[in-house]
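Quick illustration, no need to memorize.
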Amino acid sequence: MSHVALRRVAIRLLYDPDLVDRLYADPAGALVGVELSPDELTWLTAVPRPAWRTDPDRSRRLMAALHDEFPATLQLAPARATHFFGSPQFHGAIQDRGSVAAAFGSYMAQDSDPRVGALATLEAATAAVRRAPAAVAPSPQGHRRLAAYARVVRVPQGSATLLAAMRSGQGAPELDIELEDLLVLRVRPSTEVTIESLSPELATVLRRAEAGASVEELVRVACALGAEDDEATGLIAQLDDDAVLV
């Protein structure tokens, strides 16, 4: 509905002074793709321009909240973070009612320094699994899916070591050019999150389970990757027991 879109545009204007400038210069052009009526565009531009900046600390408060979830990323790339509120990721998250934390992780992951991208990917996954619902609905009978409090990520080798080093104040070691798969998992019922290395084969099985799959299909995938039938069956059962699959 149009009034919902209007409220979300107003939130974006409170954080992005460049969008405010574009709005007053070209209202329709500044908000291409947003379904607002001509009257609603007029209401926005009828607001005195300085009113959008009456709380200059608004952006700093949100960035402080993001710092709690992305301490290592922000330590390594503070300058890039200052442009987040003008990014497509931020505006998309607000307009589409998405996760600001996920948007920030996506934005920071595009930094030219691969270490920043790796840290942002891991800290975004950590934030996501911590926010996952405590209650887990079972999959249909005979099917399994990757739990919401688990994420499989592919990052340069050494990324987990880099994250630990940054969070303990030991500097920022360089990364390998080779990639590795990691499982980011919240240890229920706590909010503790573990990061562990995955073999390429196990990562493939878990990725196939992300959207849900039958147990038979997951066993077939494992067998295609070299496991014997009983090994594959045991693997799925173990992942089930560990609540990595649900």
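The mean pLDDT is 95.
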